[in-house]
Amino acid sequence: MTTDDLIQTERATLIKTKAKALGFDFCGISRAEFLEEEAPRLETWLNHNYNGKMAWMANHFDKRLDPRKLMDGARSVVSVLLNYYPEERLPEGSDDYKLSKYAYGQDYHFVLKDKLKDLLTYIQTDIGEVHGRAFVDSAPVMDKVWAARSGLGWVGKHTNLLNRDMGSFFFIGELILDLDLAPDSPVADYCGTCTRCVDACPTDAITEPYVVDGSKCISYFTIELKEAIPQEVKGKFENWIFGCDICQDVCPWNRFSRPHHTPEFNLSPELQGMTNSDWEEITEEVFKEIFRRSPVKRTKLEGLKRNVGFVK
Asked: What residues form the membrane-spanning segments (predicted)?
């Protein structure tokens, strides 16, 4: 091992140790380079219009595949995972309106971004003059791909990242740095012959293992779609009014999920006490109060009412 290799390994270890201290559950590193294998997959996915009305997913195709086009001098991608699996859950009976578990607490974009900025500050203080950018769903970065390349898990048949120790209920973020670091190796795919996620999807959004038609996903209909929900999916939502966790809930790997330790993601008392009639009669004032720091704010009151009315 050369002196440069030793330095890169030492720096990678320092960054992972600090990431753990900041509350991240896992941290891995990959080289910032062109995603050669992903290019044809992404092109095919877009050509099938699986992005639906999410036109932004077709933008910046070259940047999505090469972090060096996002940041000059990029050398490494540091990927982190932050668990959001809740200890307390909303009722999920057949008659209850359901909310994706990632939306129980505060908007993860801000929580994760703040932690990543703290990690970058540490790197700049402890290692030296390092330039970097933090990303949390805010730019054309293929976070699941980078996390998989960094050895944090594999992309499962439902296209979520799966970690053998913790399942898939976590948020992903990245730091792109102009710093050479010892990269981690990808792990194997442990989905095996299991097709539970494929079989369980009520709208058949998983068209084949490892391919999701985003325009058929309940999360797409209840969050991304801004117009009327198509009648052909009426009766298929199983009462999900914001997001959907079905493919994750049925995944055997999520038996290893453990409650998170991030207070910002805790279920708020106001949300915990919501009944079906509360959801149906929600006012602008109540919506703003309960969801002022929540991802649910994205739908606006009109969108949430549309979703409730659609599954009612």
From this structure: none
